[in-house]
Amino acid sequence: MPAQPDASPVYSYLGPVGTFTWTALNQAPEAVGGEWRSVNNVGEALDDVISGRSIGAMIAIENSVEGGVSATQDALASIPGLRITGEYLVRVDFDLVARPGTALADVTTVAAHPVAYAQTHLWLDKAVPTHAHLPATSNVAAPTALLNGSPADAAVAPHGITQHLALDTLAEHIGDNQNAVTRFVMVSRSGRIPERTGADKTSIIVELPSDAAGSLLDMLEQFATRGVNMSLLESRPIGDELGRYRFVIDLDGHVHDERVADALLGLKRFSPRVTFLGSYPRADRRPVVLESRYRDEVFIEARDWLRGILSGEPDGEDAVEDAGEALPGLVVRELDDAAPGQHGADDQGPQAG
């Protein structure tokens, strides 16, 4: 049953307490004071949102080492009505923990979430070369199971987990990449788009109309010709047949930016399916830097110029004086920018001779 209107807002996350998802949820201002519902996987978290049990779900979407989280990308592509409203970055730092009294030399089986194992296996192969891997459902489920009869001797867990569980730390900072970061997003059913800040990101999923030569280039040109940078581009199989893929894309900018909106219109004209996942502030708050020709006012000015043509207003060199406020500076600037040879061979500037 959906939560009552006067009840505390509920947020779902991959738990239990102490997971990286829990750490990310701690960064979300809207979740402060709400009820946090621990779930076992991304599908359960999103189902909470769709059913109304939760108003938001914090889920991992990208890792700096492993790339996109396929379960999240596929779920966002297949479940309609979901929107990303914010993103959060969490540094990924792992320890190897065990029951009190266990030594590193005693370890033969290591419990770990598959993603955590992939990011620590080089250290484990060196420190515990004969170990076996026992998969776990989360980064905290692995160490928790040690206290509940797990056959594992040790577990890969988030750094600091011994503050929550009665375990010993056998080794700290065992990640193969000390700069690893996981990106999380808050997902809800809200249709409200956060206000643009100048440091924003837009997430979409796009399917190509066919696998014909040039189709991918057609998609990429929608962004390149409008100065829209892609910070993420990953393909995922659609699943209906071999060779059919959809693309998960993050754009630098906000849907309220003229260049981003124009690029989305271009995509919609040729793609059979464009899924808008949301525009939201970047976690790093880094402003998007643009060339002057891609600023909002340039797109607006060009559109006003076209409106003038369609409405029968004069255009061209003979109309510069008549254009006035209807086309502020546009034609004059086009003339100023013209190449020297465009005015004829006899047209020599004041420096000629």
UniProtKB/TrEMBL annotation:
**Listed GO cellular component terms?**
cytoplasm
Where would I find the Prephenate dehydratase domain in this sequence? Answer: 10-189
**InterPro entries given in the database record:** ACT-like_dom_sf (IPR045865), ACT_dom (IPR002912), Preph_deHydtase (IPR001086)
One annotated GO molecular function is: prephenate dehydratase activity
Q: Which SUPFAM superfamilies match?
A: ACT-like (SSF55021), Periplasmic binding protein-like II (SSF53850)
Q: Which reaction does it catalyse?
A: prephenate + H(+) = 3-phenylpyruvate + CO2 + H2O
UniProt keywords, alphabetically: Amino-acid biosynthesis, Aromatic amino acid biosynthesis, Lyase, Phenylalanine biosynthesis
User: Per the database record, which ranges form the ACT domain?
Assistant: 204-281
Q: In which pathway does it act?
A: Amino-acid biosynthesis; L-phenylalanine biosynthesis; phenylpyruvate from prephenate: step 1/1
For biological process, the GO terms are: L-phenylalanine biosynthetic process
Leading EC class: lyase
What Pfam families has UniProt attached to this entry?
PDT
Enzyme Commission number(s) of this protein = 4.2.1.51
Residue ranges of region Disordered? 334-353
> What NCBIfam families does the entry give?
PRK11898.1
Q: What is this protein called?
A: Prephenate dehydratase
Q: What organism is the protein native to?
A: Schumannella soli
